[in-house]
Amino acid sequence: MRQVVGKPFRESRGRARRAIGLAGIAVLLPVVLAGCSLEDAFYLGWPRTKPTEQSELMMDLWIGATVAALAVGVIVWGLTFWCVTAYKKRADADPEELPRQTKYNLPAELTFTGLPFIMIFVLFYFTVVVQDDVTEMSDEPTNCTQVTAFKWNWQFTYSDADCEPLEGADGEAVTETGTSDYIPVIVVPQQEDVRFELRSEDVIHSFWVPDMLFKRDVIPGSEAQTQRFEVDFTETGTFIGRCAELCGAYHAFMNFEMRVVSPDDYQTFVDARVDGATTPEALEAIGQEPYATTSNTFNTDPNSGEAS
Ligand SMILES: [Cu+2]
């Protein structure tokens, strides 16, 4: 009789060990296969640089939400595993016998209903607070850049604080336009209340600078469709920008580069552009790389293929 009871017990212990081993592998595999460092793993793919005040706020919200979700997760997993082990069917138990059943327990049911509502409310509250900060606009921006998206590139128009285009020596607006052979580089000052005005010439695009943790759709149509947002730049640097709305054949190649420079450098750069310097020339005048460093041009000629 002892042998009959002992064998399933040994078997179940073997199964438990196998399950723990598999769980360990399941946790380690993503980290090892993703080839990222432990520090990267904690960032979960989020950018390390946060060049704007708004991106700091969004990152803090995300960290808070993740920590809260993990805390809830640990409690739920803990209770689940506790039930699985504590109420496991014993080999010598009566197969008809069930654990003690609890029904219509009002305090328990109120707790299970009320707690999720409190959690949703807390998440909602902090999300709205951060969203209000991110979408807040000042009455008088310190700088303005007009962004025009088109299939499949970007045009930036340097503007004054009233969002009126700056006029160059030739009487034309000072612009920066990307082509298939040239990645546009947009220069902005590291200061507060820097405004962007987004317009589209054809279809919906999306202005996205991943490091800013921010994107905004660019909508074609009347002036009422113009999208505006403001950021407070807290760091200088070079950041890649992309189109984040599938807009056609060469959507993936709609890249640009954003250079955040000191206000003094910005003034020198813009003065040079107004005087007729090209973007690479004006960038060199402030000691910056003349061409984009975060993205390359791509061959967008549909007939560039050659049969062999
Ligand atoms: Cu696009």
Describe this structure in words.
The chain is built from 6 helices and 10 strands, in the order ααααββββββββββαα. The chain has 3 domains: 19-46, no CATH class; 49-91 and 108-136, no CATH class; 143-285, Cupredoxins -  blue copper proteins (Immunoglobulin-like, Sandwich). It has helices spanning 2-34, 38-43, 53-86, 106-135, 263-274, 279-285; strands spanning 143-150, 153-159, 175-177, 185-189, 194-200, 205-209, 214-218, 227-231, 237-243, 256-261. The chain is an alpha+beta fold and 308 residues long. The strands form 2 sheets. The chain has a 5-stranded mixed beta sheet, with no helix packed on it. A 5-stranded mixed beta sheet has the order 4-10-9-6-7, covered by helices on one side. β1 and β2 (153-159) form a beta hairpin. 40% of the residues lie in helices and 19% in strands. The relative contact order is 0.12. The model is unreliable at 1-6 (pLDDT under 50). The chain is elongated. α3 (53-86) runs antiparallel to α4 and α5 (263-274) crosses α6. Bound molecules: copper (II) ion. Residues 149, 205, 243, 245, 247, 251, 254 line the site of copper (II) ion (CU).
Concise overview:
The chain has 308 residues and is of the alpha+beta class. Helix content is 40%, strand content 19%.
List keywords for this structure.
308 residues, binds copper (II) ion, 10 strands, five-stranded mixed beta sheet, alpha+beta, elongated, disordered N terminus, Immunoglobulin-like, 40% helix
